[in-house]
Specification:
It is a single chain. The protein has 59 residues and is of the alpha+beta class. The chain has two helices and three strands; from the N terminus they run βββαα. Strands 1-2-3 form a three-stranded antiparallel β-sheet, covered by helices on one side. Strand 2 and strand 3 form a beta hairpin.
């Protein structure tokens, strides 16, 4: 399974691929500004996110 993250926000939601690069997979009602902020947060926490993914899914 390709590593990804789902992001939920009161205004909408999005899915980002984590590999090979951080990339928007789907967006539902979030603005470009919100998506850019989310991507920055993902970039700043990528190692922790990937470690959590590995603990949860085992790969």
């Amino acid at each position: 399974m390709r590593k990804h993250i789902h992001v939920y926000h009161p205004d909408g939601e999005a899915k980002f691929w984590l590999e090979p690069d951080i990339e928007l997979a789907r967006n539902y009602k979030l603005t470009e500004k919100q998506l850019n902020e989310i991507k920055k947060i993902i970039e700043e926490n990528l190692d922790e996110i990937k470690n959590s993914w590995k603990e949860h899914f085992g790969n």
